[in-house]
Amino acid sequence: MRARDQLMEQNVDLDLACREAERAIHARNDFLAAMNHEMRTPMHAIIALCSLLLETKLTPEQRVKIETVLKSSNLMATLISDVLDLSRLEDNNLEVEFGMFDLHGIFKEVVNLIKLIVSVKKLSLTMILAPDLPMFAVGDEKLLMQTILSVVGNAAKFTKEGYVSIIASVAKPESLRDWQPPEFYPVSVEGHFYLRVQVKDSGCGVLPQDMPNLFTKFAHHRSGSVGNSGGAGLGLAICRRFINLMGGHIWIGSEGRDKGCTATFLVKLGIGSNPDNSAIHQASAHVRANHGSADLSGQRPLLRDHRGTPNPNARYQRSL
Ligand code: ADP
After folding, report:
1. Which of the ends of the chain has fewer CB neighbours closer than 10 A, N or C?
2. Alpha carbons 267 and 151: distance in angstroms, whole number
3. Is 141 exposed, middle or buried (0-12, 13-18, 19+ CB in 10 A)?
4. Integer angstrom CA distances of residue 278 from 125, 142, 235, 299
5. Digitized pLDDT (tens) for each residue of the chain, 320 residues in all
6. Which letter does DSSP use for residue 275 in this model?
């Protein structure tokens, strides 16, 4: 009887501690979200004003100073946006929104955004869209765009010379066996496909000892010769969470230092029909984020993600 009473008391204490911990997590996330929101406005004002200043007549010394302020502000804005994404993800507050979108258009938009950076760095940029890649897909356009920009941004950031290439294709069921790593089991569902995006670069590569922590938030990498990226180490951690929400998987391969890097990810999407031919494009579905695979079955296509056009700036700025 005494043992039972003791056990019950312990259970009550544990329950209390658990609730307190949950309350603390919510309070932290609310605080982060509020702070981020409040910090974004002045941050964007600084960025906009610096950009305007750069268009005026400046001495070379002034130009360098303003460019430094702009670069730092961009980094700060990225960090703010990453922390906000992370707090939403950790709070299970991020909603995946399914809608029909122009899949080819997303890749073209990414190239438009990134070509400025690669041209400044004199890198070559190629994009290959496989002929069988559906024009339209059903899924979360914004999450997908943000993920692609983040991975491509990293490729541009960590490459001093050479190339960045983006290859998008449909992962064929017969290549399931070749998919890495073995812990991911893709499920084929009718009306859906796995989009496979491969981003290759000829940059500094990843050291074998850094590999296990690439997707760990705030982890410090670059134990080798290549120097610090200046990032907080949030981008890939967030990408992986986004991709998990989209029922996919991401992994990175590298032959080692200065041998370049290949980031590959798979996401499960519905096959969309051309909205011009389609009669149904009103309904949308909001699915609360769960950390399993995205089940798109039964989702009706929506012409456009009604959170608006993806705002890739944060991820884009990462790569500056
Ligand atoms: P960060 O903000 O630090 O760049 P990320 O999460 O985007 O954070 O990336 C984590 C780390 O993974 C980077 O610091 C870098 O060491 C490594 N990394 C990511 N992509 C590449 C790449 N294309 N080439 C070399 N290293 C990379």
Report:
1. N
2. 14
3. buried
4. 34, 22, 36, 15
5. 899 999 999 999 999 999 999 888 878 777 777 777 777 778 888 989 999 999 999 999 999 899 888 888 887 887 787 777 777 777 676 778 889 999 999 999 889 888 878 888 889 999 999 999 999 999 999 889 889 988 999 999 999 999 999 999 998 766 655 655 556 777 777 788 999 999 999 999 999 888 888 888 766 655 443 445 556 678 898 899 889 889 899 999 998 888 999 999 999 999 887 766 654 444 444 434 333 333 333 333 332 333 333 333 333 333 32
6. T
Q: Pick the residue whose CA is nearest to atom 19 on ligand 1.
A: 154
Taking the C-alpha atoms of residue 314 and residue 74, their distance in angstroms, rounded to an integer, is: 8
* CA 3 to ligand 1 centroid distance, Å: 53
Give rounded-to-5 percent helix, strand, coil for the chain: 45, 20, 35
Closest C-alpha to 164, from 129, 136, 196, 201: 201
Instruction: Please give the backbone phi and psi of residue 99, each rounded to the nearest 5 degrees, phi first.
Output: -160, 165
Round to whole Å and give the CA distance between 77 and 36: 9
Residue 200 Cβ contacting ligand 1 at under 6 Å? no
CA of 233 to the centre of ligand 1 (A): 7
